[in-house]
């Protein structure tokens, strides 16, 4: 305040000793929209009525002046028309009341029509056979509409349609399998009929069993209790027999290979022996011929030696 007082010390009528006062603005009152609308409509109606009354007065004054109008009929018509307009404007309030009543009657008629349409929709949605059940359970229409909506959504869902098509294909495949199994069962039934006839024949053959065969069967039946302790060893025995059967097959293949080798050796030996015998025979013949020549040569040499010695 000292700086302010030093700054504005030369100004007249300035009191620096009083505290500063600040005025706050009044809060703005937001008028109600409905009240504003009613006030505007009333103002418009009053302004229209005032304008109509002023026009009526002016027309009356003009009609009384003979300078402007010569025909009384036209003035009378104009005055009556303005009177009608004034009456129509004054009767707006009564007309609004009548329109409100008419709207109420129209609303009641529309509600009745809506209820009639709802009943028609309910009858269309629920079948005639289920009317009693729906009346007893009091199912609302919204529930049935929601059910129909869900069904329509399912029908428009591609995934649901794909699953339905897959199920239909699976069902068709199952039906094909069932038809095939039915055919197989029918064929088996025919075969069973044939087997029944063959069993009858076999039964007749069993009836003709000899006493010796019956005694053999009885002895085998008596030996069955002694074979029961061997039941635990039967699986291992079967495994060993299986392995032995494989070994027997391999041994048989080895024996066959040896037999083939023996046959091959015999054939080769026979061919070689025949060749060797031929060679020996040729050698013997050549040796014999050579020995005969040598003997002749020796005899000739002896003769020559004897001749030379003489």
Automatic annotation (TrEMBL):
<keyword id="KW-0963">Cytoplasm</keyword>
<dbReference type="Pfam" id="PF04912">
    <property type="entry name" value="Dynamitin"/>
</dbReference>
<feature type="compositionally biased region" description="Acidic residues">
    <location>
        <begin position="14"/>
        <end position="24"/>
    </location>
</feature>
<dbReference type="GO" id="GO:0005869">
    <property type="term" value="C:dynactin complex"/>
</dbReference>
<dbReference type="InterPro" id="IPR028133">
    <property type="entry name" value="Dynamitin"/>
</dbReference>
<dbReference type="GO" id="GO:0005737">
    <property type="term" value="C:cytoplasm"/>
</dbReference>
<feature type="region of interest" description="Disordered">
    <location>
        <begin position="1"/>
        <end position="43"/>
    </location>
</feature>
<dbReference type="GO" id="GO:0007017">
    <property type="term" value="P:microtubule-based process"/>
</dbReference>
<protein>
    <submittedName>
        <fullName>Dynactin subunit 2</fullName>
    </submittedName>
</protein>
């Amino acid at each position: 305040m000292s700086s302010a007082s030093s700054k504005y010390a030369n100004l007249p009528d300035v009191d620096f000793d009083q505290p500063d006062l600040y005025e706050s603005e009044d809060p703005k009152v937001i008028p109600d929209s409905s009240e504003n609308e009613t006030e505007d409509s009333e103002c418009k109606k009053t302004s229209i009525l005032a304008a109509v009354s002023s026009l009526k007065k002016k027309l009356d004054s003009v009609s009384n002046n003979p300078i402007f109008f010569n025909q009384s009929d036209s003035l009378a018509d104009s005055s009556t028309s303005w009177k009608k307009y004034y009456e129509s404007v004054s009767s707006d309030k009564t007309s609004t009341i009548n329109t409100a009543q008419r709207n109420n009657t129209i609303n009641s008629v529309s509600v009745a029509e809506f209820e009639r349409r709802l009943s028609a929709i309910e009858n269309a949605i629920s079948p005639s056979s289920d009317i009693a059940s729906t009346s007893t359970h009091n199912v609302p229409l919204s529930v049935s509409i929601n059910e129909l909506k869900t069904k329509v959504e399912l029908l428009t869902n591609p995934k649901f349609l794909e699953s339905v098509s897959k199920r239909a294909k699976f069902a068709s495949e199952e039906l094909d399998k069932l038809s095939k199994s039915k055919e197989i069962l029918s064929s088996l039934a025919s075969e069973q009929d044939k087997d029944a006839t063959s069993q009858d024949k076999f039964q007749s053959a069993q009836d003709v069993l000899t006493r010796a065969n019956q005694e053999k069967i009885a002895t085998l039946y008596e030996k069955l209790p002694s074979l029961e302790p061997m039941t635990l060893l039967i699986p291992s025995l079967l495994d060993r027999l299986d392995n032995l059967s494989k070994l027997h097959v391999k041994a048989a293949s080895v024996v066959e290979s040896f037999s083939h080798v023996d046959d091959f050796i015999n054939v080769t030996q026979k061919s070689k022996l025949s060749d060797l015998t031929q060679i020996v025979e040729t050698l013997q013949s050549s040796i014999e011929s050579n020995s005969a020549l040598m003997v002749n040569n020796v005899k000739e040499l002896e003769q020559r030696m004897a001749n030379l010695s003489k």
